[in-house]
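Incident log, support desk, overnight shift.

02:14 A customer reports that sequence design results differ from what the structure should imply. Their input is reproduced verbatim below. On-call engineer (initials T.W.) acknowledged and began investigating.
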């Protein structure tokens, strides 16, 4: 469950020492203050991840640009990565035999 969906569902998000931050919206067209905040967070391109400490200074910066970001705790990030790895995992090949096996007639 993403942090935003947890917020909408009023589910308490577990506290984590680290926050995993992903830039999901583009930078062009944003105000200079927001661009400078993203530069300070080291987020320069879409779909890039950074790990930051869960401190009030970083949370204040994230509050400014929250509509451009996806913020996850360690537990949520690890669960999402595990789900993606399971989705990409190789599956056993499906073998289909279209030829029927020969039947042996024992009527002699």
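02:41 Re-run completed on a clean worker. Output:
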């Amino acid at each position: 469950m993403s942090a935003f969906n947890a917020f909408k569902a009023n589910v308490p998000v577990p506290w984590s020492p680290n926050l995993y931050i992903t830039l999901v919206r583009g930078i062009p067209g944003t105000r200079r203050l927001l661009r400078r905040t993203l530069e300070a967070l080291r987020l320069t391109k879409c779909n890039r991840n950074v790990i930051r400490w869960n401190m009030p200074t970083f949370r204040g910066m994230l509050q400014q640009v929250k509509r451009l970001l996806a913020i996850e705790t360690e537990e949520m990030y690890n669960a999402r990565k595990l789900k993606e790895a399971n989705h990409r995992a190789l599956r056993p090949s499906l073998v289909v035999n279209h030829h029927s096996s020969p039947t042996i007639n024992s009527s002699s």
